[in-house]
Structure formats: C-alpha cells, structure tokens
Hints:
28% of the residues lie in helices and 32% in strands.
Amino acid sequence: xxxxxxxxxxxxxxxxxxxxxxxxxxxxxxxxxxxxxxxxxxxxxxxxxxxxxxxxxxxxxxxxxxxxxxxxxxxxxxxxxxxxxxxxxxxxxxxxxxxxxxxxxxxxxxxx
Length: 112
C-alpha cells in the first residue's frame, strides 16, 4: 500500500506544541541554513506519526492494537516536502518505509 502527504509549517507548529520541541531548525530559515538545511526541517517523529495516523484513517490500525513502534531515521524531511510512505503487512504488523524526493528518510516497524 502506498500513501503520500505533505508536511506543512502548520504541522510543525502543532507538533511542537504537543512535544515541546521548539528547536529553531524546525521553524527559522536562518537557523535551518546554519545547520546545513535548505529550509526548516520537520520533526522526525512528526513524519513517523503521520504514517501511523494514515494507517488508522485507512482502518488498518486501531490505537488500542498498537503494541510497539520502532523507527530509524536516515535523512531529514524539509517543511513543504511531499513524503511517500509504503506500508507492507507482515506477521507482526506493518513495515513502513518513508521517502522524500526519492530519498529514504525513515524505516520502521509497527507491532500490533
């Protein structure tokens, strides 16, 4: 199964309010550039949690069924990037793979 979504500036502010992570590289272009990014980058767990939300919205995952998540972060997702997620059902739950600009950004497993 394949899904796609865009990480917006509003998404990063909403996530920061929930998580308390106000690192300026997520919001300030100058801070992001000083850190080596073209523009602000999204919180890694924001991207991963969007994947979980997509599975829930598709009826493939119920919050009560979620036992464990395990994500490995390979590259940043910049605010405004379109993210492509592949979800593959396995015996334990789902294997999730996220790409942005055809670059692997996150790999993860969701155990249910």
